[in-house]
Amino acid sequence: MLGQSMSDFPLELQGSAVPMVSFKQVSKSYGNLVVMNALDLDIAEGEMVTIIGPSGSGKTTVLRMLMTLETINSGVIYVDGKPLTHMRNGNNLAPADERHLRKMRSKIGMCFQHFNLFPHMTALENCMEGPVHVLGLSKREARERSEELLAMVGMADKRNQHPSRLSGGQQQRVAIARALAMRPKVMLFDEVTSALDPEVIGEVTSVIRKLVSEQNLTMLMVTHQMGFAKDISDRVCFFYGGHIEEQGTPSELFGNPKKERTQQFLSAVK
Ligand code: ADP
After folding, report:
1. Which of 131, 162, 241, 244 could form a disulfide with 137 if both were Cys (CB 3.0 to 4.6 A apart)?
2. How does the record classify its membrane topology (predicted)?
3. Is 146 in the pocket of ligand 1 (CB under 6 A)?
């Protein structure tokens, strides 16, 4: 980026109100196509932020960058005050190596449109897998934690079923429990209701509502469900062409959008 050097970015974020997630001047291109242009976005601890916007505006790219599935071209992303995309090298930041990425990734839980449960494992085994093999918990501890979370998502009685025996909504609830079993600091939801039949969408949105009201989790969600975004978010960001065109509380953004592009988008999706 012109005029920007790595020494302009802090090695760590410090102070009383360090955001849980912080994108600082983050840019991403595919060849000549700039899909994210100097994005600045802070998400406070416990905040629920929703990203809305037209197809191709960069919503999924934001989540993929946080999951470290994409390398970024410039800028730094911090999670919990520590650089995610970079690591300390003396008094400078250098691109993160695989070990650093693995450590930082454990702070982030994700749920996608397609739930990707392990088909040969029961719901309970799906939830226990990460805590046992990645976190090194005993089977007993992992089972206790997983059973608690499956109960929280209303799936306790189906814990011994394999995914093929569960409906889409049930599988998505197991996927949420599986992600939470890793005790992430940040949860990402990428269009988690888009692949579901309309009649089961409510069971998944009510689990997310419950997380918002009962847990102090930091969450970032991409959704096409405007009503849900309006109900549940602390803040809504409208993306357009790889940048935040407008953001605000749900009542500001939905009730009184200031920018013409936001107004056009919202009237088209109504
Ligand atoms: P959204 O989630 O808002 O629909 P995306 O973040 O998926 O948008 O995509 C943003 C832009 O990046 C789009 O123009 C898309 O075509 C482009 N893009 C995404 N992934 C790739 C890729 N692997 N290679 C090239 N272009 C890509």
Report:
1. 131
2. Peripheral membrane protein
3. no
How much is the ipTM here?
0.96
For the Cβ of 39 lying below 6 angstroms from any atom of ligand 1, the answer is no
| pLDDT of amino acid 3 | 54
Residue nearest atom 25 of ligand 1, based on CA coordinates: 30
Bridge partners, residue 41, by sequence: 23
The tens digit of pLDDT for each residue in 203-255 reads 888 889 888 888 889 999 999 999 999 999 999 999 999 999 999 999 999 99
Q: What separation in Å is there between the alpha carbon of 56 and the centre of ligand 1?
A: 5
Q: Between 123 and 199, where is the model more confident? A: 123
Contact (Cβ atoms closer than 8 angstroms) between residue 53 and residue 265: yes
* pLDDT tens digit sequence for 3-28: 567 878 999 999 888 999 999 999 99
Q: What is the pLDDT of residues 28-38, one digit of tens each?
A: 999 999 999 99
Q: Please state the atom number of ligand 1 nearest to the C-alpha of residue 33.
A: 26
Helix axes 123-133, 139-152, angle to 10 degrees: 130
Q: Is the CB of 35 under 6 A from ligand 1?
A: yes
